[in-house]
């Protein structure tokens, strides 16, 4: 068999790019937590690739604060919350050298119907949560409108997660520990070789022994068979001033809360004031027509947010201070995908969103990292 012809002076031999230990696609909370767990497991040559800039507003990991809780309608999420509270967040806080949660009560309530599943699953799983009569809920949290006949749960595990500080802390920790963070680097193509996962970013090919694709709503663009169908739904979030003393609007006087009622628009939620931003409030929109991922994000509807605020707050609303948008990647039954892609065990698909994924970030990252290490 003849030998390959040597390259001419204008045809240099193209060497294969160096093999990374791991590649993480997406720098949202699950991507950064996956990189954190991979680095803590001993991997050194790790690159995180993000299509946008740090803290961008096109996904679901930006914003000041998030809720963590144990009150859920399915026992497995109650158990997952227990792991996040007992291990995930404490380990992350210890590594970053800062507190990432502000403890405050959780109040979860609603009329008979969908809320019955929350009562059964949460109390049945033995979480540190107790039933609370509606009158007692109103007396303890007078800024919230709780109707007679509604059931309530007082969640002693709840807290306000400092989301922006979590994301900034993770980025700083990864950079300090030698993890490369590449911004404005959208992945055009993803493929699997015998010994590597290969991502094409611009004209560059990145090869790694394993990869985590934590892309949320963008996952189907690179992995058509990466999990269940995902519906991108944009959310509107408002921050309100109300007619109440400032101390009553802050943790621990004001709770993280959610009202779960029947109907497509029956789930609303809110958080205490943090850094004088105002009381956070939003409708938890889980159904509807899919929103375009690449379209210009329209501003939130101030009138709709103000109507919701007047319904849910039991004191006069002074005004909307600020608003923001975020993106859910809704999966059937609000489930999570954290699994090897069918194409290869080296590639882990992550879409743990459905509007309730931030609180599980450290747990999702650990699971994804363990699966990636097992598939190398």
Cα Rg: 22 Å
What is the annotated CATH architecture? 3-Layer(bba) Sandwich
Number of helices: 9
Write out the strand line-up for the largest beta sheet, numbering strands in chain order: 7-8-6-16-17-18-15-19
The CATH superfamily is known as FAD/NAD(P)-binding domain
CATH topology: FAD/NAD(P)-binding domain
Question: How confident overall, as mean pLDDT?
Answer: 93
What is the total tally of β strands?
21
CATH class: Alpha Beta
* Classification by helices and strands: alpha/beta
Low-confidence stretches: 1-9
Largest sheet: 8 strands, mixed
> H/E element string?
EEHEEHEEHEHEEHEEEEEHEHEEEHEEEH
Global shape:
elongated
Question: Key features?
Answer:
26% helix, elongated, alpha/beta, FAD/NAD(P)-binding domain, disordered N terminus, single chain
Structural features, described:
With about 375 residues, the chain is α/β, with parallel strands linked by helices. The chain has a single domain (about 20-375), classed as FAD/NAD(P)-binding domain. About 25% of the residues lie in helices and about 30% in strands. The protein is built from nine helices and 21 strands. The protein has an eight-stranded mixed β-sheet with strand order 7-8-6-16-17-18-15-19, sandwiched between helices. Helix 1 links the parallel strand 2 (about 20-25) and strand 3 (about 45-50). The protein is elongated and about 70 Å long.
